[in-house]
Amino acid sequence: GHPALQDPTQPSAVPAADLPTGSIGVDVIAPSGRPMPGADIVLGVMAGSGGRSEKTGKTDAEGRYEFKELATGSTQAYRINVMYNGAKFSSTPFRLPDRGGYRVRIPLATTSPNGRMVFQLLGQTIVELRDDRLHVTQQARLTNAGSNVYVFPKEGLLVPLPEGFTAFQWEEQMTDQKAVEEPGKGFRIRGSIPPGSVTLAWVYDLQRDGDTARIPVELPWTTYSYRVISEAPQGLEMTATDFPDAEKVKDQGRDLLYTQIRRSPEEPALAAFSIKLKGIPSPGPGRWIAVALASSAAAYGLFRAFRPEAVTAGARQLIAQKKQSLVALAKQTEQELQKGEIGPEFHARRMDEITTELAMVLRDEEAAAIR
Questions:
Q1: CA torsion, points 324, 328, 333, 335, in degrees to nearest 10?
Q2: Beta strands 177-182 and 186-193: pairing type?
């Protein structure tokens, strides 16, 4: 974006005609707003062929470092990362132009190991029936409502998975969250969450025996809303502890079972529950097509909240753009319903998500107006 529109609390990377061709000038800013000497910089190099390599540097007394004689053009992309107090602060990836270099500014923020400002705004489990097993996709839409970057414990935060789970896979993030499987227990998340929201996703399989199955879900975060979706062949029943009765819904011509629970901050937090399936048909040809809903939390989710102590013109502009795009999405959703492209249940759920997003955007807009 245009340098004048950059939010100074966010990393920026812009072409710089005054720098030598093939160079990247990096400025690291301490949380105090002053230049950060002695900061460890890692330059990630992503080759077009998929290969990755790294170069490292350390800032001088002025908080600066310059990488030189790098390849230009479209066969590789670069990203600047700075590790600070257990969190990673990164620029967006960029390519070097054929003339001139790039200037990257990385502002650091204070970090905290205290997770009490991290909430799960929306969690989701999707169950697919495979021949002899259940294929489970889970998502966590986490919001850091504090002004510090939350850092996961060094050993990682354990997210328990059901006994006997196999084939665990983590959906790699462009952001700073990484997961490592802990066999027999679940997986551990390491990294950090800056103020704002992030959607994490993972999948695993569970062997099934007979026509019933139980999937325990343990939530390591304070959770306000959670939904469970399962494919719905004839005769299948799905229940989840304390959740409303599952409704049968149609999504793009497929039958699904759907239930959602919401908790207000005054109610006790949702900590653990069980999903039970009864009447699972005996194995037939695996015919599941991935549910479009699986990605809906991610697709409509990632609004980046701004640190209230530094709401700039750039931040206000981004808030206004986000508001505009949500209003446009709401209109488009109404039109799709009228044309019969989506069903009323899917429409209601999507509008529910848009409304949640809009509420967050309006809250940030209000905060920006006060300053």
A1: 150
A2: antiparallel
Going by C-alpha positions, the residue among 268, 25, 20, 231 that lies closest to residue 128 is 231
Tens of pLDDT, residue by residue over 293-350, are 333 333 322 222 223 333 345 556 666 766 777 777 778 888 888 888 777 777 777 7
d(Cα 247, Cα 278) in Å, to the nearest integer?
15
Three-class SS state of 5: helix
Report helix, strand and coil shares of the chain as percent, to nearest 5: 20, 45, 40
The CA-atom distances, in angstroms, between 213 and each of 75, 138, 185, 240 are: 49, 17, 19, 12
Contacting residues for 44 by C-beta, under 8 A, at least 6 apart: 52, 54, 78, 79, 80, 81
- Phi, psi of 234, rounded to the nearest 5 degrees: -50, 130
> What is the dihedral sign for C-alpha 33, 34, 37, 41?
positive
Among candidate residues 260, 233, 247, the one with its CA nearest the CA of residue 344 = 247
Q: Which one, of 201, 229, 194, 179, lies nearest residue 346 by Cα?
A: 229
Sheet with 212-218, strands from edge to edge, namely 212-218, 272-278, 237-240
Beta strands in 331-371 (DSSP E): none
